[in-house]
Structures are given as structure tokens and as C-alpha cells.
Specification:
304 residues, eight-stranded mixed beta sheet, alpha+beta, 6 helices, three-stranded antiparallel beta sheet, disordered C terminus
Length: 304
């Protein structure tokens, strides 16, 4: 996969709703129960993934299975996670994992220097509201500081468009439909590839240095950015498995903060200016223990 930055046009997107009664549900790959037969035993042809060292996932791990895509339920048995590549799956899915372990993934950041400001700093993250005159002035200042053609432009309706760069720092694999060709840029714009039924899945690890540029509106939300990136790669994993983070370097310290679904990345880009040290966007796994917390509480109430 090429690491050359690629532009994705992202304009108006309809927020993805939950699958309705008429939509097909993802089926688990290789999960059919086939009775042993002396003439044909398909289970013997399956090549299991090598190199994994699975161990019980931590109690705060609320996430999705990297094999079947279903949410990992449970209060005590929260699933399994590879100590090396962080592949996470249900206990029942362990025997079906065919993807080889990629080993520890070096993401190029020193963990000792990075701080999660969602936890460490009770800072006020509400972005200031700008008047139309202030927005126009900010755009002029922004465009005067960049040395490329990735300008911001003001629209007649008061909104503005511009470019954001997102770096994909995914440790765990992503799932795509089996026997599908890579999507074209036109497919990504039309959003094809995710609305149809998917019967089989295959997994792979994205390059750690994958970068995508997106052309977005000022009202484009962080959740829509995530969904656009997943459509680009034909990823069929639940979008809630991922989160968009902002990253900043100040005084030799790296700060990281997870954006809420409704935050507007282009507005943050405008306020911070074009400097990548002042602000950059990173797509990572949403493994903070905040995923589906209300659903987990419901399970606890049912069990007790």
C-alpha cells in the first residue's frame, strides 16, 4: 500500500444510523459448524495464525472483536488480547484467527513523552465561537502561513472549506470484505462498499505511516471524518472501534486528546494554525474504556 498522501473529498455526509431491520448483518468468517466427514473436512484446511500470545484482556477493555466484528460482552471474561500485536477477540474466536502476529508495532512515539489530556488535565476544551469577521481574518492569516496549495476558503453561506491531514496509528488489524478489489477515489466519494451485505471478512494490518488528506467543511464532524476514512479502505469494522485524536507538542511534551463525535476538526485546524506541532490529527483504536459504557452497565444489572 502506497504511503503517498492522498486527497479525499468529504462534503455533506449523512450520519450513519444503526442498522435497521432490513439491513444484512455481518456474518463471522469461518464460523459455520460443519460436521466432520471422511470425504471432506474443511476445518482441516484452515491455517491458524502464528506467533500470537493471547491472554485475558483487561477489565477496562470494552471493544470489538478483530475477527468477527461483534462487540465483546462480559463482565469477567472480557475476551483475549495478544500481548505482542494487540489482536483482540472473543474466547470463542481464538481458534479461528488466521492472521499471523505482526509482533510489537513501533508507532514512532516515545510513550514516556505522551500524555492523555483527557485524563491528566481537567482543561476546558470548549472552542471559542468566532464572528464572521474573525473567521475571515483567521483564514487570511492561515493562508499566508502555508507554503502549499492546501488553502482554506470562505463560502457564501458563512461556512468554510479546507484540508486536514490524518495519520493512521492503528495497532490492531482492520477487516475488509473478502475478494474485494481496493476502492477507487470515486467509490470513496460515493460511499460505496459499506451499505451492501458482507458475508466474509479478511483482516490485515495498515502501514503505521499511512497518511490521508481530507477536504472537509467547517461543519464536518469528527465521526464523519472517521467514517470517510473507513469507506476509503472498505473497512467493515464498526466505526465506534476507532477514535480521532488531536496531538500537540508543547515544551518537549506530547499531549493527546480524543475528540468527541461532534467536534469539528477543520475549526480546530483554523484556530491552531497550519503548524503540525501545534495540532495534528491521528486515527487510533477507541480503547479507553468509554465504549458502550451504558450497555455494560445494563449487563451488570441483568447479571446481579
Amino acid at each position: 500500500m502506497s504511503t503517498e498522501p492522498e486527497l479525499i473529498e468529504l462534503r455533506e455526509l449523512t450520519p450513519a444510523g444503526r442498522p435497521g431491520p432490513g439491513r444484512a448483518r455481518l456474518e463471522r468468517a469461518n464460523a459455520l459448524r460443519i460436521a466432520p466427514s471422511p470425504a471432506r473436512n474443511l476445518a482441516r484446511k484452515q491455517v491458524l495464525g502464528r506467533g500470537h500470545r493471547f491472554q485475558p484482556a483487561g477489565p477496562a477493555t470494552h471493544t470489538w472483536c478483530d475477527l468477527c466484528g461483534d462487540f465483546i460482552w462480559g463482565v469477567v471474561r472480557k475476551g483475549l488480547q495478544c500481548a505482542y500485536c494487540k489482536f483482540t477477540c472473543h474466547y470463542r474466536c481464538r481458534a479461528l484467527v488466521c492472521l499471523d502476529c505482526c509482533g510489537p508495532r513501533d508507532l514512532g512515539w516515545d510513550p514516556a513523552l505522551e500524555r492523555d489530556t483527557n485524563v491528566d488535565e481537567p482543561a476546558e476544551w470548549k472552542t471559542p465561537e468566532l464572528s464572521q469577521a474573525e473567521i475571515e481574518q483567521k483564514i487570511k492569516e492561515y493562508n499566508s502561513q502555508i507554503n502549499s496549495n492546501l488553502f482554506m476558503s470562505l463560502n457564501k453561506d458563512g461556512s468554510y472549506t479546507g484540508f486536514i491531514k490524518v495519520q493512521l496509528k492503528l495497532v490492531r488489524p482492520v477487516s475488509v470484505p473478502s475478494n474485494k478489489k481496493p476502492p477507487s477515489l470515486q467509490d470513496a466519494r460515493r460511499g460505496t462498499g459499506r451499505g451492501t451485505a458482507v458475508k466474509r471478512r479478511t483482516s490485515f494490518y495498515l502501514p503505521k505511516d499511512a497518511i490521508k488528506h481530507l477536504h472537509v467543511l467547517s461543519r464536518t464532524r469528527a465521526r464523519e471524518v472517521i467514517e470517510a476514512l473507513l469507506r476509503k479502505f472498505l473497512v467493515v469494522d464498526d466505526p465506534r472501534k476507532f477514535a480521532l485524536f488531536e496531538r500537540a507538542e508543547r515544551h518537549g511534551q506530547v499531549y493527546s486528546r480524543k475528540l468527541s463525535d461532534d467536534e469539528q476538526p477543520l475549526k480546530l485546524r483554523l484556530l491552531a494554525g497550519p503548524s503540525e506541532k501545534a495540532l495534528s490529527f491521528v486515527l487510533k483504536e477507541n480503547d479507553t474504556g468509554e465504549v458502550n459504557v451504558s450497555m455494560v452497565f445494563l449487563i451488570v444489572l441483568v447479571v446481579t
